[in-house]
Amino acid sequence: MMVLQSFALVSPSRVRLLLAGWVCLVALLCLAWMHAAAPTALPRALAVAVMALAVGLVWRMPLWPRGTCLHWTGSQWCLGPAPLALEQRRELGPLTVLMDGQSWILLQAQGLPSRCPSQWLLVARAANPERWPDIRRVLYSSLAAEPQNIHQV
After folding, report:
1. Is the peptide bond before 113 cis (omega within 30 degrees of 0)?
2. What is the spatial distance between Cα 84 and Cα 29, in angstroms, rounded to a whole number?
3. HSE-up of 21 (CA within 13 Å, CB side)?
4. What percent of the chain clears pLDDT 90, i.e. is strictly above it?
5. What number does CATH give the domain 5-10+65-148?
6. Exposure string (b/e) for 52-90, b if CB count within 10 Å is 16 or more?
7. How many percent of the chain have pLDDT more than 70?
8. First CA to last CA distance, the chain
9. Predicted local distance difference test score (pLDDT) of residue 152
10. Domain spans of the chain?
């Protein structure tokens, strides 16, 4: 089985940093609102604990390893560390487009066998600027035969 197309996924540390930033922003806005409402020390301490827990959960979120690529073989989507590492690839079930931001695409990949948990994948133009049109064409043409995999808006 030969890999026809390979696309690097976004660095997981960047995804974690972005999510942690959003959590911190929301938590800071919540703290500012609480400060304006002048609550007692207990709600403030609880808000700080919730913020720390949320940041910890985001940081420990199970994402793909650094250097992981999304591969299209012509009939199957796979995840693997490098385009030529055939023995280390993990086959994926059908992909679902969750969000398409034009410069990034959030995908949900079903694991094989079907009882394996699904995984979210983020593909961005910044990780593959010269290959961005290719991945969009391959992704949507591979989903065209299975219209139920395109998230309804």
Report:
1. yes
2. 47
3. 6
4. 0
5. 2.30.29
6. eebbeebeeeebbeeebbbbbbeeebbbbeeeeeeeebe
7. 82
8. 35
9. 47
10. 5-10+65-148, 12-59
